[in-house]
Amino acid sequence: MEDVKLEFPSLPQCKDDAEEWTYPMRREMQLPILQKHGITHIICIRQNIEANFIKPNFQQLFRYLV
């Protein structure tokens, strides 16, 4: 298998007062909000047993690392 190197843009500097994302915030980060904020990449961390119900939803709009 050939070596594949993934390239991702650098993250902006984090504001000291920035709030960490928590699960109850999920309603606030629906598709229009993600697009409004210029989100292009999403990291999805899950266990193998969660693969049937935690899936990338908008593969045509975002780059996912699962």
UniProtKB/TrEMBL annotation:
Designated name of the protein: Serine/threonine/tyrosine interaction protein
Highest classification ranks of the organism: Eukaryota, Metazoa, Chordata, Craniata, Vertebrata
Naturally occurring in which organism (per UniProt): Mus musculus
Spans through the membrane: none
Domain of life from the UniProt record: Eukaryota
